[in-house]
Amino acid sequence: MSQDVTIKTEKDEAFTNAFPLGKLPAFIGTKGFKLYETLAIATYLLSLVPKDKIGAVLGKNNEQYASVIKYLSLFNQEFIPALFQTLFMINGRYPYNKKQCDENFGKVDVVASILESRLAEFTFLVGERASFADFFAVACLAPGLQTILAKPFAQKYPNITRWFTTVSKNAFFGDRFAQFAIAEKPLVYTPPKKEKKPAQEQQPKKEKKEAKPAAPAASSEEPAEAPKPKHPLELLGRPKAALDEWKRVYSNEETRETAIPWFWKNQYDPEEWSLWKVDYKYNDELTLTFMSNNLVGGFFNRLSASTKYMFGCMVVYGENNNNGITGAFLVRGQDYKPAFDVAPDWESYEFTKLDANDEESKKFIDNMFAWDQPVIVNGESKEIADGKVFK
């Protein structure tokens, strides 16, 4: 069975009608058969190639096929997001967050440990020959070996390194890896240097001029210039504990071990601050988890005018087409509204005041700051899929 493939790089009206989500790549086959998602398209196209030309890259039987899908999903859902989010934060494409980088490196190590264990006894991930699982995993791992993983990763996982070298030489890749080399040292984050302001040239002293007679008082009919509007929470004055210090601790220290105990000991004062649970009201309208996380990001952007007066974390729990948004915030003062109503969409969220003396409330706050335990929703445990920090 042969099938012609036409590649288009522009989204036109026909594309939008066929694929409302607008995701690339997208595929339209014979008789209008449509696919999106990289793995679905790649798996389908590979299934069209006769086995005598490409081998059993999708497995020899149902068990092997399921194992191929298992590894594809593992890399697509766990490894790729963790690797590239960290890479982009380290190379400056995304804002740097040490906590998120450390968590992502942890995910990379978990996936690597799974592979290392398998490859200690087998040459390939599935079966006796290289499969699509091997090809896809090697392609995903290569950018990391050239940047943030480098030689230390290769030395830590010798079975993965042996496997990577073997699979990357497979004819499937052509000459793609002919000049490939693992970086000697990992790429690390370098804080941007602050630009020094040029010294102001000294201006010659001006001779004193005779004082001019004072200008006549402004007419009472002329309106006085309106004072610059201030954030309503500015009227509360400066708190005893500066919020910036807590944000620094949270960004640079281990969350559970150091940051959270520091928060309760040094930052939270119930007379100056309040704690709030924030829930999205329309969870039944949410679809994909990454879109829900983007919704949170947009909300945070619109809250920027209140950055000096609060700190919080919001997470997306659940899975695609069955997820929700919740979070916890520390807010200056005892009312949430002055801090949140700077965002036009603040009324899309429900606000519940939390009592730090209540054990369940405190446990919830700790988990929102750490993201390391499931969220309990209506008595049901929900895994955290993603989240964002407002600071």
From TrEMBL:
* Residue intervals of the GST C-terminal domain: 61-192
One GO cellular component term: cytoplasm
Q: Where is the composition biased (Basic and acidic residues)?
A: 197-212
Q: Name a Pfam family for this protein.
A: EF1G
Start and end of every EF-1-gamma C-terminal domain?
229-391
Q: Which residues form a coiled coil?
A: none
Name a GO molecular-function annotation.
translation elongation factor activity
Q: Which CDD domains match?
A: GST_C_EF1Bgamma_like
**Pathway info:** Protein biosynthesis; polypeptide chain elongation
Q: Which InterPro entries match?
A: EF-GSTs (IPR050802), EF1B_G_C (IPR001662), Glutathione-S-Trfase_C-like (IPR010987), Glutathione_S-Trfase (IPR040079), Glutathione_S-Trfase_N (IPR004045), GST_C (IPR004046)
Q: Which UniProt keywords apply?
A: Elongation factor, Protein biosynthesis
- Region annotated Disordered, chain positions: 191-234
The GST N-terminal domain extends over 1-53
As for family, the record states: Belongs to the GST superfamily.
The name of this protein is: TEF4
